[in-house]
Amino acid sequence: MSPAGMRLEAIHCLVCGSAGSTNVFTFYFDPTRAEFSKRFRDTTVRWNICKGCGFVYQSPRLPRALMERYYGGRFWKSSFEEENRNMASMVSEEERFLFIRNALLKRGREIRPCRVLDIGCGTGNCLDFLSERGFETYGIEPCVPYLPHLAKKHRVTSGVYDGVSGSLGRFPFIIASHVIEHVHDLDGFLGHLSTDVSPDGVLYLEFPNIYSLLGDLRLTCFPGYHLYAFTVSIATQLLARYGFALLGYDISDRWGTKTVFARSSGGPVPALAFPRPDDDARGLLRRHYRDWFFRRGWRDYVKSAFSRARGV
Ligand SMILES: [Zn+2]
Fold first, then answer.
1. Model pTM?
2. 82-295: which CATH architecture?
């Protein structure tokens, strides 16, 4: 029990409903995560892997009302002052956009300027990028201190997605980057997404992946506000229940796995053939090693070989 008297809630697997799970690890007070741990210093949370489907989730976990109060404050430490936005973050926005564009092009679709909704838009970097390219930008953000800044350039709504869904019309393009792993009511969230996206609209989801080779387990499984560690196949199974088909994915990034889904209004969307259930951690790791090496690893390897040869 925590100092605030909050009750942790125990859950079953939200993907397959199974109660059976194996404890992966347990978090107690973590001095290196001071920001979180100061608030929840007596909290013990457990990460479990479902015996039924392989979904990795936290149980017991902190209750939703408490987490939403936390998100409403200064959740992010990063500054939203213009001068503090470094080049790296702008490049990653571009990388992300190119990834989405390429994933769609491979499936014979194009992304053109349209109404776009960024759920959990944070400091608005992604919306800024899209706004400069002609998109009509909408954001939802619970973190109150960001709102005045965001409102200068975008149509932003304060709060969490559940309370806003349905009030902004439909969107051909919805982004939820590093959001789904924070959502207590997964079914509610996905249900809202499926009605807020236009027929044949595109959904971009990005999430930390426990099987990401370069990912940091401690970054993926925060003791508290990350409730799940998704993988592409688990996300694909879940999204399929709401009419979304996977169009593209990339698990090679250290920070987040990128996925693009499309909602089909009529006939079936030609989905990317993706795997079997997730169980296949070894398969994911192999794929990851291979992708990482071919996309980036070899360049790093060559560069470091040259540096060594030059004695740098
Ligand atoms: Zn399960």
1. 0.80
2. 3-Layer(aba) Sandwich (3.40)
